[in-house]
Amino acid sequence: MACFLLLKATGMKGNGGLTLTGQLGDVMRESARIAHSYVRSKASQLGVDPSLFEKMDVHLHVPAGAVPKDGPSAGLAMVIAIASLFCGRPVRSEIGMTGEVTLRGRLLPVGGIKMKVLAAHRAGLSTVILPKRNERDLDELPEEVRRAMTFVPAERIEEALEVVLVVR
User: Fold this and answer.
1) Can you give the CATH number for the domain in which 75 is found?
2) Active site residues
3) Is-contact 25 68, C-beta < 8 A?
4) What is the DSSP letter of 140?
5) Total number of domains in the chain
6) Each residue of 121-143: pLDDT tens digit?
7) Residue 2 domain flag
8) Distances in Å between the alpha carbon of 96 and those of 4, 12, 125?
9) Contact criterion met (CB below 8 Å) for 18 and 36
């Protein structure tokens, strides 16, 4: 049975460090470092003063209980959490997301879409952002779930950022 992860990010005065806590395996730690680097590389496009990255440490926590997590599927969520922190824009709470990310901003397909979407549906989320190349996996979902939810297939991280960050 799949579940979804809640990521928590906070910033504090520092020198640009990244602290990761929770039950994270090597692949998820790598995804977090990619997410941090991606957001830092896109600071100007995100409206963030690039010097802020030299003055602030980021702490990313994945409160997953005792279940170790080790996969690239949380890459997009990590980018969103870090971007939200630096932009000062909250994440829309009704949206779930999945996808592996690259340093150049591509969203790569992941496995387990059916179970992830069903878990999001059970949790009351109305929208799921997923890699465009996983769009065909939505055919495996029960019709009532497909009708009840909105799906946003994306090829690039920027597409997801436009949907999920609250405009102020």
Assistant:
1) 3.30.230.10
2) 73, 116
3) yes
4) G
5) 1
6) 999 999 999 999 999 999 999 99
7) no
8) 8, 26, 7
9) yes
